[in-house]
Amino acid sequence: MIYTVTLNPSIDYIVEVDQFKVNQLNRTKRDTKFPGGKGINVSRVLNRINVDSIALGFLGGFTGSFIQDFLKGEQIQTDFIEVSEDTRINVKLKSDSETEINGLGPSISSLQYEQILEKIKQLKSGDTIILAGNVAPNMPSDFYETVSKECGNKGIDVIVDTSGPSLLNVLKHKPFLIKPNHHELGEIFETEVHTIEEAALYGKKLVALGAKHVIVSMAGDGAVLCTSDKIYTANVPKGNVVNSVGAGDSLVAGFVGTYKKTGNLLESFKFSIASGSATAFSADLCQKADIERLVSQIEVSEITGGVKG
Ligand SMILES: Nc1ncnc2c1ncn2[C@@H]1O[C@H](COP(=O)(O)OP(=O)(O)OP(=O)(O)O)[C@@H](O)[C@H]1O
Ligand SMILES: O=P(O)(O)OC[C@@]1(O)O[C@H](CO)[C@@H](O)[C@@H]1O
């Protein structure tokens, strides 16, 4: 079974405003609410490509109930721990450009922390766990490291989609996949990553530090996949970007879901990019038919001759 962990879920409140103006009353052209948080997005996309998962994490209050009901409506299995404060609402303002205001989210007690660890301890060899997003406020910042160690020792594939020290610290536990975007990759090495060659160079360093597979996404500029002995690059399909929220999560779901079905790394890389782009081109997360339509536009090639560094 695949488990997704969202420590700090959200209702994503998508607000569309024509020519947003600060210091003035703006009226929405359209607004929608979706369950959000990176792990939840991964579970929703997995579901759309017919791959089962169980969504774990913390939910509370009326906002938590909205998410629970929405996921139930999509027939997604959940096993959330209830917290007393309301789950946060994240505002995604779409106008000439996109602005996000993400809430702080409920604090997690030490008892609730123990409860989620206990649930994760029940996972077995052959399971997959996807740790996505930032650790909730006042939870131990080494949560992902603790879980990666526990799961890695049991033969559970661990996928981590986070940034900064939380990401660096899991590498020694050999995660199956990490997926920094090029900005996050640059931050890790205190540099800037602009080109495919730079993404390959620094992605390879993350493999040397322990990651089994690294996908570096570069928004509309392509992506790089690094493995223990090969580096691949791929283009992204062309289209009209209407929503970047959840594109990275869709990429993770596309990769993991396809790998579970086929065991084929390059096919999974292609579907991961098609899933990310299908979400970028849709108002909500991607649908299976959109992914299938885009996948034929993606060409993967191996970077031969090595990367200097
Ligand atoms: N302009 C674009 N054109 C086509 N596809 C895109 C574009 N921007 C993003 N994508 C798709 O979304 C994937 C993830 O995008 P990005 O590199 O921005 O990751 P991210 O920062 O994790 O995403 P998110 O916006 O979810 O935080 C890309 O690999 C690509 O498939
Ligand atoms: O505040 P975090 O946890 O860093 O990010 C949360 C979030 O922006 O990430 C998802 C998109 O990836 C959204 O559904 C959600 O609102």
CATH homology superfamily name of the largest domain: Ribokinase
Structural class: alpha/beta
- Strand sequence of the main sheet, in spatial order? 5-4-1-8-9-10-11-12-13-14
What is the helix fraction of residues, given as a range?
A: 25-40%
Counted up, domains total 2
Strand content: 15-25%
Query: How large is the count of helical segments?
Result: 10
Small molecules bound in the structure, each named once: adenosine-5'-triphosphate, 1-O-phosphono-beta-D-fructofuranose
CATH topology value of the largest domain? UDP-N-acetylmuramoyl-L-alanine:D-glutamate ligase
Summarize the main sheet: 10 strands, mixed
Q: Could you give the count of β-strands?
A: 14
CATH architecture of the largest domain: 3-Layer(aba) Sandwich
Order of helices and strands: EEEHEHEEEHEHEHEHHEEEHHHE
According to CATH, what is the class of the largest domain?
A: Alpha Beta
Gyration radius (Cα, Å) is: 19 Å
Mean pLDDT: 95
Q: Report low-confidence residues grouped into runs of 5 or more.
A: none
CA-to-CA gap between the ends? 38 Å
Label the overall shape.
Answer: globular
